[in-house]
Amino acid sequence: MSLPIAQYQRGFTLIELILVITILGVISVSVAQVISLSAQIYITGAERTRLVSEARFIILRLEKELRNIVPNSVSFDASLGCLTYYPIVMSGTYTEDPFDNELHSVVFEMKEPTAGDKLVIYPTSPQSVTDNSVDYIESTVATDDEGNNLEHQYIIELGAVNTQSSPGKRFFLFNENPVSVCKETTSQGEALVRREGTSTGIIATNVSSWSADVITPSLRQNALVDIDMTLTSSSDESLAFSHEVHFPNVP
C-alpha cells in the first residue's frame, strides 16, 4: 500500500524562517557598517591629504616671498592678524658717495623699477624702511670716459638727497605699497587674504587660526618668521602646522 504524496512534502517552519531572516539582517548590518566605515576612512584621508597639500602651498608661497623682502621690513599686527612686508623690486651695491641725489650702483639683475618706487639704504626696522627711503626717478647705464657702457653699472636718479649709508654699501628698491597677508572673513568663510596695492587674492580658505612671530636678528641668530596656522575642513577635520622662514636681515 503506497503512502499519500502529501506525506513526502516538507518545508521551512516559521522558526527556521525567522532565524534565517535574523541572520541575514545581522550580516547585512555588519556589511553596511564595514562599507560605511571604509567610506568614512577614505573621505577623512582624502580631506586630510587636501589640507596637507593646501598647507604645503601656503608655506611655499609665503617662504618664497619672505626670502625676497627688504631686510627688517616684516612685521605682524596681532590685533589685525596681518603680516606686512616690502618685497624687493631691485637691489645692488653703490660704488661712490651715497649722500647725493644720484647713486652710482652695480646691479647684477636689472629689473624695471617704476616711478613711485622707493630706494632705501640700511633699513634697521619696518619704520626706518619708510622713514629713510627716497623716491626713485629713473636709472641710466653708466659709461666710461670714452662713452662706452659699463656692464652692470647704472646711475640711479633720486627725488631727494639720500641721508643713509650702509657698511655693506647695499641699497634696495621697493614699491611704496607693502604686501599684507591677513586673516579675514570672506564670502568663502575665514580666509587668508593677500593684498598689494589694489590687487587682492585669497591664499587659503577655512583658516580657523593664524599668527606669526617675527624674531629679530642677533649676533647668534638670523631673522626669521615663525608662522602658525590651523586649517579646518567642512567635515571638521583640522590640521595645525608651524613653520619657520628665514629671511635676509643684513642691510
TrEMBL record:
Instruction: Establish whether keyword Glycoprotein is in the entry.
Output: no
Q: Which residues cross the membrane?
A: 12-35
Swiss-Prot/TrEMBL keywords: Membrane, Transmembrane, Transmembrane helix
Q: Does the keyword Transmembrane apply?
A: yes
Q: Which stretches are annotated as coiled coil?
A: none
Name of the protein in question: Pilus assembly protein PilW
In which organism is this protein found? Alteromonas mediterranea (strain DSM 17117 / CIP 110805 / LMG 28347 / Deep ecotype)
